[in-house]
## 1
Amino acid sequence: NAGVMQNPRHLVRRRGQEARLRCSPMKGHSHVYWYRQLPEEGLKFMVYLQKENIIDESGMPKERFSAEFPKEGPSILRIQQVVRGDSAAYFCASSPRAGELQETQYFGPGTRLLVL
Amino acid sequence: GNSVTQMEGPVTLSEEAFLTINCTYTATGYPSLFWYVQYPGEGLQLLLKATKADDKGSNKGFEATYRKETTSFHLEKGSVQVSDSAVYFCALRGGSSASKIIFGSGTRLSIRP
């Protein structure tokens, strides 16, 4: 059973470009979470999605950032008009369901975004 | 709101030394508590977890006990190895934070041969 997959693993963008980060959850998992890790810091929650629904986006910046998890295909985190402060590692996690405290989230290897 | 505070690093120990990384939390309700480990250049791996008071999570020689009276979840290992060098994150989920995980800032551990 493959784990959570993220691609690309490394992404370099120039200021003003768009960044698209993809996450394929573990097989059988329908809940996806995105976290951001700034250098030398812990992970900060960004958004929680189920198929075709955004459940909690309380950690998403109000502008330039969006996320989706379509019926088919991976979840996408999209950053428009990137700035240097967006440079970070972006981690995706998945779980089979939510609403149960015991449910573990499994993390992908992350996408390291560098904005020049 | 919910939060996690953990011991600042870096922590440097010799091989076979005893390890403690302190972690305390603030939460409403009854959260689940976790320790995650991040090896260089990799994602997070779940190391252990505990879901209710007095539960002890354990894995790979690491242990942590959910202490509600002191709101703590300290990570311990009796004899560390060079391969344990990594960043360790204490985290909680549940209570008022619902589905999202709240992470501590991480503790970098380096083990000398």
## 2
Amino acid sequence: DQQVKQNSPSLSVQEGRISILNCDYTNSMFDYFLWYKKYPAEGPTFLISISSIKDKNEDGRFTVFLNKSAKHLSLHIVPSQPGDSAVYFCAARFQGAQKLVFGQGTRLTINP
Amino acid sequence: GAVVSQHPSWVICKSGTSVKIECRSLDFQATTMFWYRQFPKQSLMLMATSNEGSKATYEQGVEKDKFLINHASLTLSTLTVTSAHPEDSSFYICSVPVAAVTYNEQFFGPGTRLTVL
């Protein structure tokens, strides 16, 4: 049972444009959501997060939006840069717990 | 944050042998560490929670006798894949959870690529 889903396995965006990565979840008990970026043969690195009590969090070129009623969150990267090419994982955490539940990941490719 | 290292970064072994993977928290004392496994083009799947000074907590479907976890100190957790078989070939990643005032996240090690022949 995949509680966190990233339905797009890959996304290709032109440099300078906006990249939008989507994530859906099924469990309303999740209280915290995170995005991680991963390069091949490396561990994931934290990008940005959002609490379930908020609907938006922004950090530089990265913005995460949360729609609780739709159980959907998205990561916006603008403007997209070649160095953003990586696999992006959406993750969720249960209230009071430390362990994370990850989505399948979306491979983002930024084309020059 | 926390700096997390893993050793080895990659290992090739014969079927039936055991392999030990180390996860070290270099600048943070971790009472808890997490072990994940990632198959190609798939998600990171949590295998177990390593607890310093006590037994590890395994996720459903993970064989505790096959994947032995020892959290001997606040900076070191080890995962031993016993009697490894080709289906155990995967990318194993550990993480250290760090609580802060405004967020609570995990810092991941670089991962260990295990190939069982």
